Amino acid sequence: MSPLAMRPGARKRKNTNKSIDLDNYFTGPAETDHHSKWPHFFRLHGSILPEMILPLLFIGGWATCITCISEFVYPLRVASILLTVLGFVVGLALSFRSSTAYERYAEGRKYWAQLTLTSHQLARTIWVHTTERDGELGKQDILAKRSALNLIVAFAVALKHKLRFQPFTEYDDLHGLVGHLDTFAKEASDQKLPANKSKSTFKVVGEYLGLPMAESNPRKAIKRSKKPLGNLPLEVLSHLSAYVDSSIANGSLGVSIYQTHALNAVSALNDVLVGTDRVLNTPLPVAYSIAISQITWVYVLMLPFQLYDALRWVTIPGTIFAAYIILGIALIGREIENPFGMDVNDLNLDYFCDQLAQEIDVISSNPAPKPAEFVMHKNNMVMFPLGESGYQSWEQRSLEQIRTALKAKANMTFQERKSEHVQREKVGEV
Which segments cross the bilayer (predicted)? Predict the structure, then answer.
């Protein structure tokens, strides 16, 4: 069994033995390691098509009504110049909507990459550069270092739940990491989270179809709390800072540059916390969202009046197709505006947290490496690929022979690359 499967609260992966799992097909975020052989044109997982069904049915009915009236009662026509003028305005509005939404999505991913990088550096500083004292104190130091690494993972997991408006500590992947800490979230959490009530058919179908009246308030858990919730990721950082301070005080982290590096890493994690909060709580101003939605819908509703003269009955499918393009782009912008949610196209924070936990487990799986053990190892082929001789063989040679070998290695590498380049050029000419 893999370490991920053994870890309490690890995310349950989808059953890859089934071709289609309808229970999870329209839920997200999408699995990062999932591979589909279907062409993008035929894929529904991650598509906004389910949310487009009701708008397209309405547009189809509207286009049919306008076409029938124009055909059998009175021709309802609008000059095509209006299509050109409004088209430019709609294109500008959708471009602004899409660019701002994707900018938030990309910025969210950058912050999480910064979190991963800083976590790696801090974990390595703690595990490698914090010394272990002799005797029983050494045992305490190892357990303290491992506890500090757990706090790094706890920060990432707590941040994930905070960004999804899950403010408590009684989650499977979080309780084991922060249950022993004195935090506001722990005080506010019940001993057992209320069981998830089964959703009604209307609510399930409405969420798939993107009905606003079927969507739940994501902040309802925060609003219903009867006690202050604090800021769990920030409180985890306080405990992590306290560990760094104690390591400096007892001399385990005695080198000043490592002390500075550890404190700067904690500060960088705090920067990630503030930055992700800014991305989450600073959406596109509502006035822009309302105006763009109104402009888009007015344009789509005006299409049948402008297309009827040229297309006649083809106005109906033509309007539906144009509406799919225009409204689809607007819906994509709305979906990726919050990159930390549970939509299929949102960032897979569960996977990122699991990956970070595994990588930190790898860092702490062995004692801090000793250069003498891996540098002087008999299988260390120092001059690879020049030769397969080990360290002991090269150690017996003179300094001049070693420098000559280094120069020969550089020349050999250059010649190999030049030969490969010439070979590729010949293949390209053929």
Answer: 52-72, 78-96, 286-307, 313-332
| Whole-Å CA distances, 314 to 308, 318, 320 | 8, 6, 10
Distances (CA, A) of 425 to 275, 412, 415, 420, 421: 48, 20, 15, 9, 6
Q: Is the previous residue joined to 29 through a cis bond, with omega within 30 degrees of 0?
A: yes
Find all residues with CB under 8 Å of 289, minimum gap 6, and list them: 283, 334
The string of DSSP codes covering 110-153 is HHHHHHHHHHHHHHHHHHHHS---STHHHHHHHHHHHHHHHHHH
The vertex-122 CA angle with 119 and 124, nearest 5°, equals 105
The larger pLDDT score, comparing residue 227 to residue 314, is at 314
Q: At what angle do helices 315-335 and 81-129 cross, to 10 degrees?
A: 30
Residue whose pair of structure tokens reads 């404190």 in the numeric block: 263
Report pLDDT digits (tens) over 398-425.
999 889 888 888 888 777 777 766 666 6
Nearest to 235 by CA among 286, 170, 163, 185: 185
Interatomic CA distance for residues 178 and 186, integer angstroms: 8
Rounded Cα–Cα distance for residues 272 and 113 (Å): 10
Q: Is the omega angle on the peptide bond into residue 385 within 30 degrees of 0, that is, cis?
A: yes
Mean pLDDT for the chain overall: 83
With residues binned 3-state (H G I as helix, E B as strand, rest as coil), the percentages for the chain, rounded to 5, are 65, 0, 35
pLDDT in tens, 7-21: 434 444 444 444 445
Higher pLDDT, 427 or 343: 343
State which of 36-45, 237-246, 364-373 shows the largest mean pLDDT. Answer: 237-246
Token readout for 91 is: 């294109």
The residue behind tokens 């989450």 is 280
Question: What does the pLDDT read at residue 22?
Answer: 46
Contact assessment for residue 30 and residue 348, using Cβ atoms and an 8 Å cutoff = yes
- Residue 158 is which amino acid? A
CB 330, CB 55: distance < 8 Å: no
Give phi and psi for 237, each to the nearest 5: -65, -35
Write the secondary structure of 15-48 as one string of H (helix), E (strand) and C (coil): CCCCCCCHHHHCCCCCCCCCCCCCCHHHCCCCCC
Tell me which residue of 306, 158, 132 sits closest to 231, measured CA to CA: 158
**To 10 degrees, what angle do helices 81-129 and 349-363 make?**
20
Domain ranges across the chain: 44-368, 372-429
